[in-house]
Structures are given as C-alpha cells and as structure tokens.
Sequence to fold (80 residues):
Amino acid sequence: MGRRKRKRRASNDRSAAAKATIQKETQGAEIKELKKETEGGEVVYSAEIVKDGKESEVHVAADGTVTKRGAEEEEDEDED
Fold:
C-alpha cells in the first residue's frame, strides 16, 4: 500500500509542477483552452492562450518542463 501512495504523490508532484509552469507561462494571458494529452507515451498539458491580442500555445510535460512554445498564426477567414 505504501508504494501506491508514493506513486500517487509523485504523480501529484508532477501535476503540481506542470500547473505551476502553466501559471508562469500564461501570466497576464487569457487561457482559451487547456488540455491533458499524451505525446510519445508521455503526459503533456497543452494551453492555448491569447496575450496582447496574439494567440500562442505552450506544451508542458508532467514534470513542469516546457516541451513546446510558439505563436499560432492568425487564419484569414476572408481567403477565397
């Protein structure tokens, strides 16, 4: 039973680390969408944000490491 608690605690620590990183990375931004995904067998949290009128995205591993960061390109809806 003690091992399960340790695994849960480690998982909770990772989730807390990811949450802290997302809060830091998205400071002053509006979070449009936040998803928990699996990429390459690893849990990754993906946040789509808007800051200063610009859309961007940040991916954070469960341990709090930023795995991807970048601006999203605006799509022109009037294109023919």
Q: What stands out?
A: Confidence is low (pLDDT under 50) at residues 4-9.
